[in-house]
Amino acid sequence: MIFDGLSNKLQDTFKKLKGKGKLSEKDIKEATREIKIALLEADVNFKVVKDFVKKINERSIGSEVLQSLTPGQQVIKIVNDELTNLMGSANSQLSFNSKGITSIMLVGLQGAGKTTTAGKLANLIKSQGKKVLLVACDIYRPAAIKQLQVLGEQIDVSVFSLGNSTSPVSIVKSAMKHAKENYFDIVIVDTAGRLHIDEELMNELKYIKDEISPTEILLNVDAMTGQDAVTVAESFDEKLDITGIILTKLDGDTRGGAALSITSVTGKHIKFVGVGEKITDLESFHPDRMASRILG
Ligand code: GDP
Fold this sequence. Notes:
Elements: H1 4-18, H2 25-41, H3 46-60, H4 63-67, H5 71-86, E1 102-107, H6 114-126, E2 132-136, H7 144-155, E3 158-160, H8 168-181, E4 186-190, H9 199-212, E5 216-222, H10 227-240, E6 244-248, H11 257-266, E7 270-274, E8 282-284, H12 287-295
Parallel strand pairs: 1-4, 1-5, 2-3, 2-4, 5-6, 6-7
Antiparallel strand pairs: 7-8
Bound molecules: guanosine-5'-diphosphate.
Guanosine-5'-diphosphate (GDP) binds at residues 108, 110-116, 193, 220, 248-249, 251-252, 274-277, 281.
Protein name: Signal recognition particle protein
GO biological process, one term: SRP-dependent cotranslational protein targeting to membrane
Domain Signal recognition particle SRP54 helical bundle: 2-87
């Protein structure tokens, strides 16, 4: 399970702290050194770890902590607070337009989980009583359109497609017209990905963005790819100014470094996490709950 390694290590450190009663500056230094190693082993970005440990040190060595009756507990609370901050502190919700259609563009590399997530998200939003249209703009991956149509049928959501010989920009343009004429509330656009970031992919996404000015541009990244996910997020954000992140495959055997680094590095919040292949395996992301889960 994600964070198991990190969780176990932090709990060992905390056990030592709690067992000590009064803490010295040396105890804190030793504990933060262990926390640093645990975070690095969990594949958290080096700079993020450095800043994190500095904050823990500064806040823990303050006189209130060392002189309190339960210094160990206080340090744990500080680590909990800072872990929560690292992941963006508050839960970040989807934005909806107050008037007209809300459009959500899903972007990311091939295999990141866009098509699957498009179905999951459509299902979730539909359950909130909204009329959702899925738009198939991944015209390059042979099975992508079919995959979206199958998902649409499964959840009883319409899928707009013009096949794979019309340009994605023309497809979204027609899809928005169709959505307006047929009173859809939400349009979710599944876009194409590549194995690596390239100029052509980015330009195509930029053209789609310029055409529909989406309410949300959500980047799908695979949590299993660790620090690569963070680098990918930086590139997409630079080009498209994304509005949020969906971290997929959090159910896999990942150390969790991406979840703990991506918001710090990009400044963009994780809005959802994918926790499996089923249509219902999408969860809203709560930094405080995730921090509590890590600390056990
Ligand atoms: P796309 O190329 O970005 O559209 O990616 P797909 O939606 O086709 O997903 C690629 C693979 O990842 C598929 O086999 C999905 O079932 C799988 N997948 C997507 N999201 C998750 C997730 O949250 N957990 C797991 N375990 N698998 C996922």
